[in-house]
Design brief:
By secondary structure, the chain is mainly α. The chain is built from 11 helices and no strands. The protein is elongated and about 65 Å long.
């Protein structure tokens, strides 16, 4: 069975063609397709876990770290956990959707869907739900690995987990919508990976995913403040790091209100761009 046939195979449309109903129908189909793609599942789920393990082993040989005088020592795994969670949001939402939709458009899968009752909003909803479900599983595995294998302490305050929930929800939705929007950038399925992955890598480095954010120069921190990943990582740091570590942030505070506002703005931007740039067919078709 070729790729196009496999991607377009789906059950009959539900009898009630509401946007929400078709979105849920599409979400079930997207989840089935996602978990049938073993290479995508393995890479998306394992990459942040492997990176967390590598950083913890490479930089944790001397025991706990103290980034600045007066701060309580924390394990390296705890320091990198928020960044890897933010990276997981970016990989699950932005990277995977951008590449996947670009491939579907290049292979004329979207053109076929455009001839069905499926609206762009229902299509977006299906993609966002798929990303949200897989993102939850991935985040659970990252946290489990950090706690059980690497010994990173987890928050005991329910309020911290409440913060995690809304940062995760805003982050995964924003990443998914921006992934849909940027999927129009690659001109073909062959170029999708070459176009999207370098963008993802640069954004992660600039946003303090692989380098501790407080170590970046001020001008780069200011530039990163324009990107959503910086705010995802900052929100996660507020959850998993001691309160005293807020002193390492730009303004010396977690600024969770700023996190919510920034991610909310990017969510709206992603939604608008997705709707404006999305096409069922290739522009050169």
């Amino acid at each position: 069975m070729n790729i196009v046939a496999e991607r377009t195979m789906a059950p009959a449309f539900p009898p009630r063609h509401s946007v929400a109903g078709l979105g849920l129908w599409r979400a079930r189909f997207e989840l089935k397709q996602y978990f049938r793609s073993a290479d995508t599942v393995v890479f998306t789920f394992l990459f942040p876990i492997v990176m967390l393990g590598l950083f913890s082993v490479a930089f944790g040989g001397d025991g706990d770290m103290v980034p600045a005088p007066g701060l309580p020592p924390v394990p390296v795994s705890q320091m990198y956990l928020p960044a890897m969670l933010a990276a997981g949001l970016l990989l699950s939402g932005f990277q995977n959707l951008a590449i996947d939709i670009a491939v579907e458009r290049s292979e004329d899968v979207l053109r076929r869907l455009g001839a069905t009752p499926l609206s762009p909003l229902s299509y977006f909803a299906g993609k966002v739900v798929q990303v949200a479900v897989t993102g939850v599983v991935q985040a659970f595995l990252i946290i489990l690995f950090a706690s059980v294998v690497l010994g990173a302490p987890l928050p005991t305050d329910p309020a911290a987990w409440g913060t995690f929930a809304w940062v995760f929800l805003l982050g995964i939705t924003t990443s998914a919508l921006l992934g849909v929007a940027i999927s129009s950038l690659p001109r073909s399925a062959r170029s999708a990976t070459a176009v999207i992955i370098p963008i993802v890598l640069v954004v992660q480095f600039v946003s303090g995913v692989y380098l501790f954010f407080y170590m970046l120069p001020d001008w780069l921190q200011n530039a990163a403040s324009l990107l959503p990943v910086k705010w995802m990582a900052q929100g996660m740091r507020a959850v998993f790091l001691p309160e005293q570590y807020a002193a390492l942030e730009q303004n010396g505070e977690w600024n969770l209100a700023g996190v919510a506002i920034a991610l909310g703005i990017w969510l709206v931007v992603g939604l608008v761009l997705s709707r404006v740039t999305f096409r069922w067919i290739r522009r050169d078709a």
